[in-house]
Fold this protein.
Amino acid sequence: MIGAGIIDKERAIAEVEAQSSVGQVFIETQQYLIKKLIKEAENGHFKKYIHNDHDSESPSHG
C-alpha cells in the first residue's frame, strides 16, 4: 500500500521491471526492511523465536 491506494503484486512487479519511480520506492522500501531485519538478527532480537535443536541437551529425534 502506498499513500491512499493499494497496488497488487503484478502491478508492483511491473513497476519494478519498468524501473519507474514507484518501482524504485518499492525497491528502497524492501532494502530498508531487509537491512533492519539483519541488524535486529545480529543484535539477537529473534532468539526468543528461534529454537535450535542442536543447542539442547535432549537426545535428537531421529
Observations:
- The two ends are 45 Å apart (CA to CA).
- The first helix runs from residue 9 to 17.
- The helical segments are 9-17, 21-42.
